[in-house]
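Journal club side-thread
Mid-discussion, someone asked how the predicted structure for our own chain would compare to the paper's figures. Pasting it here so we can look after the session.
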Amino acid sequence: GDSTLKVGNSQPKAGDSPPKAGDSPPKAGDSPPKALRVFEMMQRDGVSANVITYNALISACGICGEAEEAFTLAAQMKRDGLQPDQITYSALITACEKVPP
């Protein structure tokens, strides 16, 4: 059978490597976070992100030590008309903790 992951009505683009069952959660040193690849696939398929989606992405970036990307996503979240919540700010603080001195 066809083992290609299908999201919506589109095929993944060349270079896409979506997470698979059994993949480990994000950790420091992962770059770029796997969650960002899924987010890019969502955007290509016209799926709108909500606060929960953004919080998950910001958290994944923070865990991976990608604080700058976490703050970029928070700014994009606001541009998309979504209001950051306590979880958003907590994830941003965690991202700051992971920044090397």
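Post-session note: The radius of gyration is 14 Å.
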